[in-house]
Amino acid sequence: MALKYSNKINKIRTFALSLIFIGFAIMYVGLLFKSTMWLMSIFMILGLLSVALSTVIYFWIGMLSTKTIQVVCPNCGKPTKMLGRVDACMHCNEPLTIDKDLEGKEFDERYNSKKYQK
Ligand SMILES: [Zn+2]
Predict the structure, then answer these.
(1) 55-93 b/e with 16+ CB inside 10 Å = b?
(2) Distance 72 CA to ligand 1 centre (A)
(3) How many helices (H) and strands (E) would you count in the chain?
(4) How far is the CA of 70 from the centre of ligand 1 (A)?
(5) CA of 9 to the centre of ligand 1 (A)
(6) Which SS3 state, helix, strand or coil, does residue 118 take?
């Protein structure tokens, strides 16, 4: 099976991390426009917003982490955190499910939506 899914918490964390880098990159570009005050200010504000957003996302991950289910991955034997009914292992991206009905079925993130829940 092609493992195109990765663990949701890892995915969000990667996104938050890249936002920090993007934020600093934007602020760095702003420094190149030191002579144009308003242009530099715009870049600085955008950069700060990006970093602030990433902080918010990190906080959100913290909230989400309390709702995750800790399971031991049958593939690599390491403990991993699951979000929703289906998720992928944090270490090896093995698709996992906590629902016996979905066992053996093709991994589909749609199973997490309300429509598919009984
Ligand atoms: Zn694993």
Answers:
(1) eebeeebeeeeeebeeeebeeeeeebbbbebbbbbbeeb
(2) 8
(3) 2, 4
(4) 12
(5) 14
(6) coil
Query: At which residue do the structure tokens 């493992």 appear?
Result: 3
How far apart are the C-alpha atoms of 44 and 42, rounded to whole Å?
5
At residue 116, the pLDDT reads 57
- Tens digits of per-residue pLDDT, 50-96? 999 999 999 999 998 888 989 999 999 999 999 888 899 999 988 88
Distance 94 CA to ligand 1 centre (A): 5
In this prediction the pTM is 0.74
Query: What is the number of other CB atoms lying within 10 angstroms of the CB of residue 23?
Result: 20
Distance from the CA of 76 to the center of ligand 1, in angstroms? 4
Closest CA to 68 of 23, 3, 8, 1: 8
Average pLDDT over residues 93-102: 82
CA 114–ligand 1 middle distance (angstroms): 26
